[in-house]
Amino acid sequence: QQQNKVHYDAESDVLYFGIQVGMEEEVIEIVEGVNAELDEKGQIIGVEILNASKVLRPVAKSLELKILHVA
Fold first, then answer.
1. For residue 2, how far is the Cα from the chain centroid?
2. How big is the chain by its Cα radius of gyration, in Å?
3. What is the four-CA torsion angle of 22, 26, 27, 30, rounded to 10 degrees?
4. For residues 43 and 36, what is the distance between their CA atoms, to the nearest angstrom?
5. pLDDT tens digits, 6-65
6. How far is it, in rounded angstroms, from Cα 31 to Cα 17?
7. Other Cβ atoms within 10 Å of 15 Cβ, number
8. CA-to-CA distance for 39 and 35, rounded, in angstroms?
9. Listed residue (42, 48, 43, 56) closest to 5, CA to CA
10. What's the rounded Cα separation, in Å, for the pair 31 and 16?
11. Pair 24, 37: CB distance under 8 Å
C-alpha cells in the first residue's frame, strides 16, 4: 500500500485511506463500520469505511447545500 492512498471500491462500497506503508497485522473497529488497520508495531496504516456511500451521504448532502448556498 502506498502512503496517503485513497481508494473507493464501488462494488463492495468501501472507502480506504492509506496512511503509511506497512503490512496489516490487526484490524480494530473504531465505531461500527469504520476499521483501523494496524501494523506489527500497533501503528495505524489505514482506515476503511464500510458502506461508505450510506455513511457519507449526510456529509455529502450537507457539503452540497453549503456549496449551493455560497454560489
1. 15
2. 15
3. -100
4. 10
5. 999 999 999 999 999 999 999 999 999 999 999 999 999 999 999 999 888 888 778 777
6. 16
7. 18
8. 13
9. 48
10. 15
11. yes
**Residue the block writes with cell 453549503:** 66
Instruction: Specify the DSSP element, H or E, that contains 16.
Output: strand 14-18
Q: Which three cell numbers stand for residue 8?
A: 473507493
Quickly count helices (H) and strands (E) in the chain: 1, 5
Check: CB of residue 25 under 8 Å from CB of residue 36: no
Let me know the angle formed at the C-alpha of 18 by 13 and 22, rounded to the nearest 5 degrees: 125
Residues 43, 34, 21: CA angle, nearest 5 degrees:
35
pTM over 0.90: no
